[in-house]
Amino acid sequence: xxxxxxxxxxxxxxxxxxxxxxxxxxxxxxxxxxxxxxxxxxxxxxxxxxxxxxxxxxxxxxxxxxxxxxxxxxxxxxxxxxxxxxxxxxxxxxxxxxxxxxxxxxxxxxxxxxxxxxxxxxxxxxxxxxxxxxxxxxxxxxxxxxxxxxxxxxxxxxxxxxxxxxxxxxxxxxxxxxxxxxxxxxxxxxxxxxxxxxxxxxxxxxxxxxxxxxxxxxxxxxxxxxxxxxxxxxxxxxxxxxxxxxxxxxxxxxxxxxxxxxxxxxxxxxxxxxxxxxxxxxxxxxxxxxxxxxxxxxxxxxxxxxxxxxxxxxxxxxxxxxxxxxxxxxxxxxxxxxxxxxxxxxxxxxxxxxxxxxxx
Length: 360
Ligand SMILES: Nc1ncnc2c1ncn2[C@@H]1O[C@H](COP(=O)(O)OP(=O)(O)O)[C@@H](O)[C@H]1O
Ligand SMILES: [Mg+2]
Fold this sequence. Notes:
Elements: E1 3-12, E2 15-25, E3 30-34, H1 41-49, E4 56-61, E5 64-65, E6 76-79, H2 91-100, H3 106-120, H4 135-147, E7 153-157, H5 165-182, E8 185-190, H6 193-199, E9 202-207, E10 210-215, H7 217-222, H8 227-232, E11 239-248, E12 251-255, E13 260-262, E14 275-280, E15 285-288, E16 296-305, E17 309-315, E18 321-327, E19 337-342, E20 348-351
Parallel strand pairs: 3-8, 3-9, 6-7, 7-8
Antiparallel strand pairs: 1-2, 1-4, 4-5, 9-10, 11-12, 11-14, 12-13, 14-20, 15-19, 16-17, 16-19, 17-18
Helix pairs in contact: 2-3, 2-4, 3-4
Bound molecules: adenosine-5'-diphosphate and magnesium ion.
């Protein structure tokens, strides 16, 4: 079932935390609300669940406005960061809890619990108590408790943030797989851009109570709508250089105190003589063997090894730096004079004042 948000606003007293949110969560898709702490993700999720009143605007499930519908009538399941299982109950009783309070017949409840335990591969743990499980197993039980009722809509609020880094990576893939198997509309909240990128069909990037961009992971990565999205998505973060675009002999160029860069035809998108910010990802820069031939030159300030890759921080002037990501075997050391190569197709330009992307 589609979930639609129409001009949703939320105030806590005099403070407006969500402003005119318009979003469509398509049926059976995995959509992530991504943004820094405090941007209103949990509040929005709680409004969809019916746990928080809506100040203004409409929430629709399909065509029906459900603003006033009680949480228990929304056929929603929610998984939180703290997945509070009942410690004195077995996994089986924890899983069946939601059905038991609804007075579901025993046989039906047993079948539902067995089915979900099978999907989550926790059938062998059904008679244990939460204290006898690992973190990942507990998280699976929490998911199972939500799945048991076969909800139309899954809401998840940072469900992996209490797990250690390695388990988070495993659980990302598992959650994605569960979603494909279950096919429920899923709205997932996280502040972790990598989680959002790896798991989602669509991402709504939020900041300051506003949706900054709504698109596929590929869209928000390759065509960020503004400086906020450009800086928030991708790791290590995009490099930004302030400058201006000027044309000479019909060729547009980006000019900054440290370097001048010829731009691909049309990429300036009407930016002539405007203050702009040039953005380029560390992965889209290269180190050039002969610094003399490179448009940008500098001195290596620090090198960080990341395993198969390394990050090279190149100092341009006396304080501006560019991060370049290269293969680990690339020969480069601190204090080397290096050239930095740009791919004109892989730079981003933003209006310096509004932060909005300039496009041809
Ligand atoms: N019950 C509340 N009363 C007052 N302010 C709140 C309440 N809940 C959240 N807020 C404020 O609303 C903003 C958004 O919070 P939240 O939705 O929890 O953000 P996120 O989940 O993105 O970190 C924050 O500034 C937070 O302090
Ligand atoms: Mg939150």
